[in-house]
Each structure stands twice: as C-alpha cells, then as structure tokens.
Amino acid sequence: MKTKDNYYHFLISLLIIFFNSMAYFLCLNSMKCWIPYTSLFVQLICQINMILNSLVFPFLLLLIIYFFRSVSLILILHFFVLIVLLTVSIYYKQFQSIPHINLIKHIYLLPPVIPQILFLLFGFNELIISASIVLSLAFSFRLSHDFKKNRFYAIPKKKILIFFLIIIIIAYPLKAILINSQRPITKWHRVHLLKLHGFIPVYFKQFREAIFKEKKIIPWPGKINLNTYNTTSRNKNEKNVIILQVETFDACLMDYQIGSEYVMPYMHSLKKQGMFFKYFFAYNRGGASSDAELGSLTSLIPLETHPGFDTVDYQKIIPLNRILAREGYYCVGIHANTGRYFNRIQSYALMGFDKFFDQEAFQGEAAGWDSKDKVFFEQTIKIIHSLPQPFFAYIITIQSHGPFCNYSTNPEIFDFSGLNKDMQDYMLTMHEVDQAISVFITQLEKYGFLKNTVVVIYGDFGNTVFYDDSPGALHYYGSHEDDLYRICPAGSRVPLLIIGPGISPSIKYKVGSHIDISPTILDLLGIAEPQGWLGSSLLQPGTGKAVLNYDELFVLVNQGNDVVVDDNYHNYSKFIDYSTSMLDP
C-alpha cells in the first residue's frame, strides 16, 4: 500500500513541477530579446538556465508541502507567483521590457487602466499561465492533505538524497545573487537577464539598488548632437505656442488607408501644410504617457524604472515653460483627466506653469477618462481665448487611450476585412480623434490664432499592442517601412507635425525624438537654448539621432534620407546616466 502511495505522490509531485514550469516558460518564452554578438553557445546556456530556473519554485513548493504542510502558505505562494508571472507577461506586451521593482510604489496608477489590461493585454498566454498555476494549487492541496494524514510517515534515505539534490538545484540559480551583488547587472537587456538568471537574482539586484541607491552628481555631457547647439538669441518671434500631445498616435496612421479611405484624412491633408518629420520617435517607459511630457519639456531622456515626475529635482531641470516665462509667456497645461494622475497638478506647478487645467475645468463628455476629444477641444478653445498673449499651452488628449472603445463612429464606414476587432476599435477611435483635431485647428484658424501661433502635434507613443515582431498586425507598410519598424522598438515611432506662420510645407528626414521638441520650438522663436538639454533643434543641419532607453538601448541615426541603428550604443550611456541623475537623484 505504501508503494502505491509513493507512486501516487510521486506522480502528483511531477504534475506540480510540470504545471509550474509550464507557466514559467509561457511567461518568458513569449519575450524576445536582442543581444549583440550572441553566439549559439551563449543562447544554449541561456536555455539551460531557463530550465533550471523554472524548477526553483516547484521544488521549493514541494519542500514546503512535505515539511510544513500549510494550506495557507501554499495558497499565498501560488497567488504570489501568479501575480508575478501575469504582471511580467502583461507588462512586456505593452512595454517590451520587464517591470522594475520601483513601480510597486506607483501601483496607485493601476485602477484606471484595468479595462485596457483586461480587454487588450490579457490574452490566451495569460489564460494558460493562470490555469497552470490553479492546477498546481489543486495538486498541491491534494498532496498536502495526504501528507497530513500520514504525519509520522518515515523519510527513507532515498528521499533524503533527493532533498539534497533539490537544494543543489535551488542553489544553482541563487548563486547569481552573490555574483551580481558584487558585479552590477547591466542597465539594458533586462529580458535577456531574466531568461538567463531567473527572477530572484534580477529582482534581488533591483531591490538592493532601490534600498542602497548611490547618489551621483554627473556633469552635463553636452548635447547628443554637438554641432546643433543654439547659444544665442536672434530675431525673436513672439508667437504663441501650442503643443498637442495625442494619445497612442502611431506614425503609420498619417497615411494609413483601408481600401481607398484614409483612417485619419484630416491629419493626412494637414501634413501637406506644415513640416512633417518622418523619423520621429517616442519614449514609453516607466512613466508611460508622462514620459512624453517630461522628455518634451525638459529635453532629458525619461526613466525606464518609474514616472520621473515623482522623483525629478525640479530645481535642477530647465523645462521649456520656464524659458518661455522669462520671455513673457503665460504657460498652462490642459488635460481632460484628473490632475492627480501622474501627479500632474503638483508637477506642473513645480515646473513653473502658471496654471494646470484638469477635468475640474471641463464639463460633460469633455471631462475624465471617457472624455471625447471633440468636446474637449471645443471647451479648450474657450480656455485659450481667456489666456493673455503670448501664451504657451501644453494640451494632452485622452480619448484614444486603450482599450479603444471610446468612439461613436459607425464601423461600416470602413471595410475591415483581415483586421481583428481590437485593431478595428483602434482605427475607429483614431478616425474620431482625427475629426476632433480638425475641429480644433479649424477653430484656431476661425478666431485668428493661427496667424500668430506655432502648433506642434505629435504622439505620446505608438500602438504597441498590435505589433508582431515589431512591424505588427497592420501589414500596411512597403518593404522599406517594414524594415524601419523592425529595427525600432514597437510603438516608438510617432508623427511630428509643425504648422504655423512662416513654416513652409515639407517632409523632413532628420531623426529626432521627444527631447528635440523644446530646442526646435526655441529655434522657431529665435530664443537661445539653456545649458543642460540633451536634445537639438530638428531645423538645424547635421545628422539626427534618437537615443531610446528601452529594454535595450537603441540609438537610431540618419544615413542620408534613411535611418539605421548605431551599434556603438554604449557610447551614449553617459546621456542616460546624466538624465537619471537629474530625474532620479
């Protein structure tokens, strides 16, 4: 009878190991990572380490079941592992990286985006991970129950030997804790490191750095493009400035057609009336949408670990509005959402904005997470009318935030053959946003603002959810565009369009990113740049560069009218270090 019980318990133990390991592999195997100069041998070692790392939790769980037999402890452990695996898997889908431990402090940002997580990010992979952990929990309860009934069951020598083997298997991945506590884990390739070392070493290192953070004073390394530093003012143009930051605005939508119909016909036509920058890139890291604001206003590279608004040294940074205020500009921020999200009310005040208009300034469909951009813009025009001139208005839209269900457009206006429901929702939402932008620009023109106002329109980030191997599910681009989307991080390419008096229609091929917005605006106004900015005016000659601090450090540069990756990305780490010292001192 004991022999049958042993076989039965052994089978259950194998099932526990199998389901836990499967959940681990489903989480990590779906992640893609690019490491330069990686040999087949290193890739093989990585796969072997993944197998060994996947055994840590199930073997630890079996030890707890055998020696402690606590149902509560088993439940807590399974719940913890499920939360970790789902968090990492879902976060990777949105950001192509793994979450930093610092984000725990910003969990208050989570509730409003739960619909986006459930409708867009929680897919089949996450469902199987959940089912695997639940099955492991059920078998663990069964095994624990059986062991409780045989409380004084003797431990044979073979099991003692197995116990020591388990300890060795657990100790193998843990050795990386000691190694990496002395030798820092690289700032990039966190997905690769997670696959190679497992969760414990990577997050132990992050925890250690968060607790024992070293404060470093790093001097300004100069501009990324040294030959484009505008140090003197000239022929100042006292124009109003409006920045329009559009939520989830992917560059492809400027020209995207379904059949013969443009998804965003107004933006497609408006592109022919201003300067359109073909190779413009966004930051979408630890601060999500707020990264666009931080990068655009301060000309610093946003953090990968958490929203920079929460930790930035406001005395050291030099935001655009502060420069404009010295020139007599009245500066405001305008957003339909609550100003408490990303701590915007306090952050904009500390940056020196005269006022921040949040949802309290709007009524009806113009206010809140479900704001309609058309109504929001109609009420925003009234705010702009009330501003003393010259003014600087930073306007942030929200209608096109995921899960892309906030639209009233009839789906039958497009032939969506071949596009899934999520993509259809995105297209219909952006079509409605396009109509709203049309209303806004038309109103600016009607009331005479466009005669003396520079309008800068760009996306906070692109559409990351629908990318498949980076080019994504759109299947729209020609071969050249496909290649471009393969070399840049998913969702990083956004449109940049500048319209206003004296701006000739043109397509610009210079590579740029959010950190180039402020220098470009000052160049248009004839105002000198401050020392401390990393970005450069996109109007100046020279090679453009975009340093993107993603899971991997991407450096995109011009090659004629094309864009390529600069493999010497380590030469640019000093710019990341400097930005970090300013945004998280």
Explain how this protein is built.
This protein is α/β, with parallel strands linked by helices and 585 residues long. It has two domains: 2-211, no CATH class; 240-583, Alkaline Phosphatase, subunit A, CATH 3.40.720. It has 18 helices and 15 strands. The strands form four sheets. Strands 7-6-8-1-9-10-4-11 form an eight-stranded mixed sheet. A three-stranded antiparallel sheet has the order 13-14-15, with helices on one face. A hairpin with a 3-residue loop joins strand 13 (545-549) and strand 14. Helix 1 packs parallel to helix 4 (71-95), helix 3 runs parallel beside helix 6 (124-149) and helix 4 packs antiparallel against helix 6. The longest helix is centred in the N-terminal third of the chain and has 28 residues, at 2-29. The chain is elongated and about 90 Å long. Mean pLDDT is 82; it is low at 177-186 and 468-480.
SS elements, strand count: 15
CATH superfamily of the largest domain: Alkaline Phosphatase, subunit A
How helical, in percent, are the residues?
A: 40-55%
Strand order in the largest sheet: 7-6-8-1-9-10-4-11
Catalogue the unreliable spans: 177-186, 468-480
Please give the radius of gyration in angstroms.
27 Å
Rounded average pLDDT: 82
Write the layout of secondary structure elements.
Layout: H1 2-29, H2 40-54, H3 56-67, H4 71-95, H5 114-121, H6 124-149, H7 157-182, H8 190-197, H9 199-211, E1 240-246, E2 257-258, E3 261-262, H10 265-270, E4 275-277, E5 280-281, H11 289-298, H12 320-326, E6 330-335, H13 344-351, E7 355-357, H14 373-386, E8 391-396, H15 421-446, E9 453-459, H16 479-487, E10 496-499, E11 506-508, E12 512-513, H17 517-525, E13 545-549, E14 553-559, E15 562-565, H18 573-583
